[in-house]
Design a protein that fits this description.
It is a single chain. The chain is an alpha+beta fold and 83 residues long. The protein has one domain (4-81): Ribosomal protein L30/S12 (60s Ribosomal Protein L30, Chain: A, 2-Layer Sandwich), CATH 3.30.1330. Helix content is 42%, strand content 24%. The longest helix is centred in the middle third of the chain and has 14 residues, at 39-52. The protein is globular, with a radius of gyration of 11 Å. Residues 5-82 form the Ribosomal protein eL8/eL30/eS12/Gadd45 domain.
């Protein structure tokens, strides 16, 4: 899995609320979703991304996604933002 995209992104929104907002605003270019995140949360985001035409990439775990985002805790999802 390529976490490099997350690490290299100049602008990233971490977490469900922020990522959802960026997708809704049309600013997200790609959303990374952790496979072990709560499906009740992720299904909404996946459907939103489909509707908005945003690429969804699955990552192995919340822990690894959080680490790639440079935070100490797990992240269910993160959006790469094009400002």
């Amino acid at each position: 899995m390529s976490y490099d995209k997350v690490k290299q992104a100049a602008n990233i929104s971490i977490g469900t609320k922020q990522a959802t907002r960026m997708v809704e605003l049309g600013k997200a270019t790609e959303v990374f979703v952790a496979k072990d995140a709560d499906p009740r949360i992720t299904i909404k985001m996946i459907n939103l991304c489909k509707k908005m035409g945003v690429k969804v990439t699955y990552v192995d775990s919340m822990k690894l996604l959080g680490k790639a985002c440079g935070i100490e805790v797990g992240a269910a999802m993160a959006a790469v933002v094009n400002e």
